Amino acid sequence: MDDTHQSDKNQKMVLKSIAKWLVIFALIAFVCYKNQDLMQEALEEIQITPVWKLVVCLLLGNLYFIAEGCIISEMTNTCDHRLSVWQGITCAYLCTFFRIATLGSGTGVAQLYYYNLHGIRVSTATGMSLAQYTFQKITIGIFGVVSFLLLILSGHSGIRKYAWYMFAGAVVISLICLFLFILTVSKKFSDLIMKLARKLVKPKSRLYPLLDKAQISIDYLQEQGRIVWKDKRLFLTVVGLDFFKFACWYAIPGIFFAGSYSVTIATCLGLTAVCNMVGCVMLAPSGVGTLDFVFALFFACVIPDGDAVAAGLVIYRLFTWIVPFVIGLVPALAVRKKDEK
């Protein structure tokens, strides 16, 4: 009975993923059709890009996953079965494969499965996964807010044009970060949230059973969160690596535009951080579409050539999405083969 239920659940997840991707492909096809000239010119822009820039972008894109692997290895150091750095990197690529394949919904499942495969208990794995996600969101928020403030202080007239949109994103992400932080460290706060949720959701509602699961997840999060907060070395390592990995990704547009336009790598890095911050608070599967829209909008403020902006977006997606997805296919197939045995 449980196997049948799990099989039905997996089929529904696959169908949902297929439906999402059909919608995404339809939108991409429509946009490409409406902007054929722009896409053609963007591809021509990429073709004349120096090889060294593409190599550096490739390196930066993959340094993210090396840092992520180190984070996983460090966090599993608190349990009985520590993953090596190599296993952490493998897990990072595996998770990004399922994140892109399922547009976000399969990331946690893939991570839990890999942890369980290496002897880490489900409760511990769930707590570590949630704690890692929380620290990641807080890092995106802090990185984006600080970058927004520095960009405004720089006095760039183009950036000031969308200052209010950036400010709105900064406020929302700050509130989200504050909520996640308090939820991680305060048992009283989480109990209050769950109490309010149980009052708002009717006992006969389909959502009511999910509250029990949410309570268990919060307990796991707080348990692992306390471990990280108390261990100063672990905390500083995780936070430092989180900032480093995002800095690698955020620097990619700066490397691509370097030397071609009167814009510094630091400005591009900060602007990409703001784009991700704003894209993070806009509801879309795995940030598809929202980040691209915000990227095109904000970078047009500092890069006068629309073709170059489109090319920069393609390069950013290539090295943060496509290449990691292809690499992630290798551990995904290896895990499936191992599972079949």
Automatic annotation (TrEMBL):
EC number(s) reported in the record: 2.3.2.3
Domain of life of the organism encoding this protein: Bacteria
Molecular function GO labels: phosphatidylglycerol lysyltransferase activity
Residues annotated as transmembrane: 13-31, 51-71, 138-156, 162-185, 258-284, 291-312, 318-335
Compartments where located: Cell membrane
Keywords, sorted A to Z: Antibiotic resistance, Cell membrane, Lipid metabolism, Membrane, Transferase, Transmembrane, Transmembrane helix
Catalytic activity: L-lysyl-tRNA(Lys) + a 1,2-diacyl-sn-glycero-3-phospho-(1'-sn-glycerol) = a 1,2-diacyl-sn-glycero-3-phospho-1'-(3'-O-L-lysyl)-sn-glycerol + tRNA(Lys)
GO process annotations (BP): lipid metabolic process; response to antibiotic
Pfam families hit by this protein: LPG_synthase_TM (PF03706)
One CC-aspect GO term: plasma membrane
Topological type in the membrane: Multi-pass membrane protein
Main location: membrane
Coiled coil location: none
Family statement drawn from the similarity comment of this UniProt entry: Belongs to the LPG synthase family.
Function in brief: Catalyzes the transfer of a lysyl group from L-lysyl-tRNA(Lys) to membrane-bound phosphatidylglycerol (PG), which produces lysylphosphatidylglycerol (LPG), a major component of the bacterial membrane with a positive net charge. LPG synthesis contributes to bacterial virulence as it is involved in the resistance mechanism against cationic antimicrobial peptides (CAMP) produces by the host's immune system (defensins, cathelicidins) and by the competing microorganisms.
PANTHER family associated with the record: UPF0104 MEMBRANE PROTEIN MJ1595
Protein name, entry field: Phosphatidylglycerol lysyltransferase
Organism in which the protein naturally occurs: Wujia chipingensis
